[in-house]
Write a structure and sequence with these properties.
The chain has helices at 24-38, 46-62, 98-116, 181-192, and strands at residues 5-7, 15-16, 67-75, 78-90, 121-129, 133-145, 152-164, 167-175, 196-198. The protein is an alpha+beta fold. The strands form two sheets. It has a seven-stranded antiparallel beta sheet, sandwiched between helices. Strands 1-9 form a two-stranded antiparallel sheet. α1 (24-38) packs antiparallel against α2 (46-62).
Amino acid sequence: MGADHFAITVPRTWFELPVRPEHRDDAISALVQERVGDQPALREHRTEIVRILRRFARSAWDSGARYCAAFAEPSDDGIVSGALTVSMLPAPGGDDDPLTALTDRVATLADRDSRDDEAARAHVDLHDLPRVGRVPRTWGISRIVDPSGQRSFPVATMQTFVPMDDQVALVSVASPAVDLAEALFDLFEAVTDTFELIDAGASGATDREAR
């Protein structure tokens, strides 16, 4: 696809996070403080929300993501949180057309993950992104290892793979709130559906869009 940048729109209640380490923690604290000013009910949760968002931003940077947004919302059972990242991966090689090659690669990866983790429940399908077209994605419950490497825990996750010339844009959304998985999958799909590819040189491309 002839584009070199992307745009995505997240809900207003989410936080768009800086991922570069320089001044990252201070910037996140300022974002939360501003939100607390608009929503005083968040004040008692400020410290925990800052901690959660910093962890998401650090993980996004460590994974090489170009963009990260997250939500952290109080509930009766604690903070419901999750994060979205956009990363760039090399496109699969081979003689097949790009979509076929990418779909085969995604199916192979999902099958491998399911074999490695019997508790994982991954689904693979082709999804129509409104501004892009048909692309492969996986969604379901998987397990990830925490940064200490001492334990793993389940997460609801959706990963959408968008061909982009010699790269693949990976839009990944995940949350540990697996008891809310069905509602989260609807939310993840709605947010991912706003993803679009942008030609930064095209007339009308804004700084916000040209990521």
